[in-house]
Amino acid sequence: MDKVVASAALAVADVPDGASVAVGGFGLSGVPNVLIDALHASGVSGLDVVSNNCGAMDTGLAVLLSAGRIRRVTGSYIGGNKEFARQYLGGELELELIPQGTLAERLRAGGAGIPAFYTPAGVGTQVAEGGLPWRYDGEGGVAVASPAKEVRDFDGTAYVLEHSIRTDFALVRAAKGDRHGNLVFNKSARNFNPLAAMAGRVTVAEVEELVEPGEIDPDHVHLPGIFVQRVVALTAAQAVDKKVEKRTVTEREARV
């Protein structure tokens, strides 16, 4: 039952080229940076990544993206990542862009064993009707477009069929975890980390604080250890190394 692995490098050593990987995080909150850096150091490439966003500045998934290690992204937010936009518009990167709530439910459904579900999000748009550019040809044309999805009427309301997501691996970050893999997340880090962990067939969690089994009140567990296969305990320096995407400082009035 002890799922603790000695290092991040060992925890991701068996991730092969071309693997699909769900990655937790919301903006810069709860991003498994240590595991991502270890994946980068391993040299793995051709990754199919599922994540809300694909990193920012020089942190998170931006490390793998800038190195050309990502082949495809399924996500809901590009943000101000100029390198992401360059690769996508240049035909170097495939992107399936979907509504944020739909992404969350596709991950959760995958972990819950639900193959597909209906949702009203995206009905009447290219999300349902198809034609969204997944990959450009590098010359302004669309090389691969999204297919049309099934739409059904339930009690007078149209719903589109969305398939669940399962990935080979998942990388997540938790504020606290025990040796059995039970995890606790902090605030907005809880938005996508539990869902990404559920979707992965092999889930690796980096934890800021490692505790012994029984130290976490069962009522406080956000994700039970059944969904986690490996745990990596962060050092004190790694645990506090958190980036700020956009720093806003209020100017003080000059004192006379």
TrEMBL record:
UniProt cross-references to Pfam families, sorted A to Z: CoA_trans
SMART domains found in the cross-reference section: CoA_trans (SM00882)
Coiled coil: none
PROSITE patterns xrefs: COA_TRANSF_1
Keywords linked to the UniProt accession: Transferase
GO MF term list: transferase activity
InterPro entries named in the record: 3-oxoacid_CoA-transf_A, CoA_trans_fam_I, CoA_transf_BS, NagB/RpiA_transferase-like
Gene3D superfamilies, per database record: Glutaconate Coenzyme A-transferase
Similarity field: Belongs to the 3-oxoacid CoA-transferase subunit A family.
Descriptive protein name: CoA transferase subunit A
Lineage: Bacteria, Bacillati, Actinomycetota, Actinomycetes, Kitasatosporales
